[in-house]
Amino acid sequence: MTKHPVIIEDTGLGLFQVEVRAQGTSFLSDEPISSGGLASGPGPFDLLSAALGACTVMTVKLYAQRKAIAVSHVQVMITHQRDPESQRDVFERSIFIDAAVTEDEMKLLLAAADRCPVSRTLSAGSDIVTTRSQTAITTARRVGDETHIRAMDRACDELATG
């Protein structure tokens, strides 16, 4: 698998504001004013929730297209909280699918949502390997990254084959 970096660095404005560069675009991430940030962009857990929601919408639409299920609109709402007893993070996902489908087709679409690559990653956990760089990272743009689309394809294939 080819590594396509996402580069994040502080902007020098405020304590928490960072610039995120990925796939030839950039945006700000920050914390709310109540936490000492400038509220200039989504926070880290907002981005994690957005990743789950985006992957869910993309996977459901891809699955619907492959199965010729007429879906006109998909919307996902994600909320995140930490369970005070277990101390585990809980992401609640509410999915709206605008489609004239049978109950069985709706079950398949919702099953596809559960198989989206980000959902699987969050459910399974991940290993994080940290190293120290001796030099500043040269900005790299992600062009033609197909890692996520291949993972969504596999999720749809696995669902189709049982």
Order of helices and strands: EEEHEEHHH
Instruction: Please report the total strand number as a whole number.
Output: 5
pLDDT < 50 runs, ≥5 residues: 140-145
Give the averaged pLDDT, no decimals.
89
Structural class: alpha+beta
Rg for CA atoms = 18 Å
**Main sheet makeup:** 3 strands, antiparallel
Q: Tell me, briefly, the overall form.
A: globular
Strand arrangement within the widest β-sheet reads 1-2-3
Your description of this structure?
- By secondary structure, the protein is of the alpha+beta class.
- Helices cover 36% and strands 23% of the residues.
- It has a 3-stranded antiparallel beta sheet, with no helix packed on it. A two-stranded antiparallel ribbon has the order 4-5.
- Strand 2 and strand 3 form a beta hairpin.
- Helix 1 (44-66) packs across helix 4.
- The protein is globular.
- Residues 140-145 have low confidence and may be disordered.
Describe the structure using short key phrases.
162 residues, alpha+beta, three-stranded antiparallel sheet, two-stranded antiparallel sheet, 36% helix
